[in-house]
Amino acid sequence: MKLTYEAFDKTGTKVRDVIEASDPAQATEELRRRDLFVADISPVGPGGESSRGSAAADQRTAASGKVLVGGSKTKRMKTLAMFTRQLFVLVSSGTPLAQALSALERQMQDEQWRDAINDVRLKLEEGSTLSMALASHPECFDSIYRHMVAAGESSGELSSMLQRLAELTHKRLHIRSAIQGAMIYPALLSVVAFGVMILLMVFVIPRFGELFDSLDTPQPASTAVLLAVSQTVCKYWWAMAIGLIGVVFGLRAYFQSDAGSRFFDTIVLKLPKIGGIVRNFSTARIVRMLGVLLESRVPVLEALSLTRDTTANVHYTELMDRAEKAVAQGQEISSVFGESNLITPSVYEATRSGEQSGQVGPLLLNLGDFLDEENEVTLKALTSIIEPVILIVMGLLVGFVALSMFMPLFDVTSMTGGG
């Protein structure tokens, strides 16, 4: 078969070409004999394009608005975690792979996932490897998943690799769920606060305005401002709605562009408190992913390339790109980590120690678990601070509106009493 590859030579120059081989493992070995360090290799599909597709291409598909198999990304990850766990149990118990896939296909409720598993099973029965069959469905099985399966097949340890994949997928799902769960209550409070202010502006304050007009009483500055804002909202709500929709779509289009994405990623990293949390989560993701891939015997350059493609922040993507080029030139990963302020000194020291002892994978895995636990504690602490702050702001706004509306009434009452 023909496979397209991306590799680096001894000088660090990137090479892209096509090679004939029976499978990716044989192609990788042949390229190593040519003194080329393989970063990515995949079969050539119809039309001369790589049929495997990278994680970056998977991310671009999601970003472009196309619906992933199984609906949302979280739902897809849940289905993938369940599928991997059950496939590991069946394969480890001695069930033939095709038979295990057939059993999972029958019990899969999502029709699109069922069709994908059926296609993978048919390709296996036709003589394809599991990793090659999974490559036909990048919307279900991302690049990291496929590379780890390929590594498990080449080493003859597919069962243990499926176990690692199940643990990795479960860990990623757990972190995503923790972040979403921590943000639900603050987001709900924000929506309620916004809704209350809209109701006050549209229904409550206009009634007070009519009352004040009938009484013909002088109005404090705060009351006059609120009445003017309320009248503007009631009169031009349609223009505000159109403007808000335009701003939302405009910002979305801008942030999806290269310049907008870089600007957003830069601002996020510089935000007080938030920037530190983003750095910690990004570092933990890189450390955990790199540790799993290296421990799974994925070549270092491939591991760095795959980890780079899973990073969401452009600055971390560039960091991993520099690390990949440095390793291709014979340098160590820690040499790049040590020069960047994106990586904490503890991670740099741990990486350097792992390289010196030859235990980078296990050390990064342990460090990733530690960072994940630390990030969860930080996230919960931040959430516990955000919630009362939103409640206080909401109370102050409602109190300001109430005082502004009732102060003229107090003046009328005092004037009436004085008369």
At the fourth level of CATH, the homologous superfamily of the largest domain is Type II secretion system (T2SS), domain F
Q: Any guess at the CATH architecture of the largest domain?
A: Up-down Bundle
Q: What is the radius of gyration computed over CA atoms, rounded to a whole number of angstroms?
A: 28 Å
Q: Output the strand order for the largest sheet.
A: 2-1-3
**Helical segment count:** 17
Total of domains: 2
Identify the overall geometry: elongated
Strand content: 5-15%
Q: Pick out the low-confidence regions.
A: 46-71
Query: Class of the largest domain, according to the CATH hierarchy?
Result: Mainly Alpha
Main β-sheet description: 3 strands, antiparallel
Number of strands: 3
N→C terminal distance: 100 Å
Mean pLDDT: 80
Please state the oligomeric state of the protein chains shown.
Answer: single chain
Helix/strand structural class? mainly alpha
Order of H and E elements: EEHEHHHHHHHHHHHHHHHH
